[in-house]
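Support reply, case 0932

Customer input (verbatim):
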Amino acid sequence: MTKAFYTTTEAAKALGVSSARVRQLILKGDITAEKVGRDLLIPPEAVERAKQRKTTPGPDSQIVLASADVAKEVKPAKTKRRASKRSLAQEGMKKRRKRGGY
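Our regenerated output:
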């Protein structure tokens, strides 16, 4: 049985992506859809075209990993802890007490 239209959730399951991604593809124009009320209805032909267009990383794609030598050269940045407003206020009170302000 062929469906007349798919919802974004049904199309997402058929394509193996999230429903948010289906909405992105609709806005981009890769998938055609009709807005009926608050729902986007997608014709089955559009889902089939999207299935055929869907690509996965092929054998030519490579993931480049850094060698251990490069990883040793990179040191994590030292972050300076920023004082909170409360600690700054407490420091100011200590200074005033030392000077005899309180």
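We compared this against your earlier run and they match. Two observations from our side: Residues 22 and 28 are 10 Å apart (CA to CA). The two ends are 84 Å apart (CA to CA). Please reopen the case if you see a mismatch on your end.
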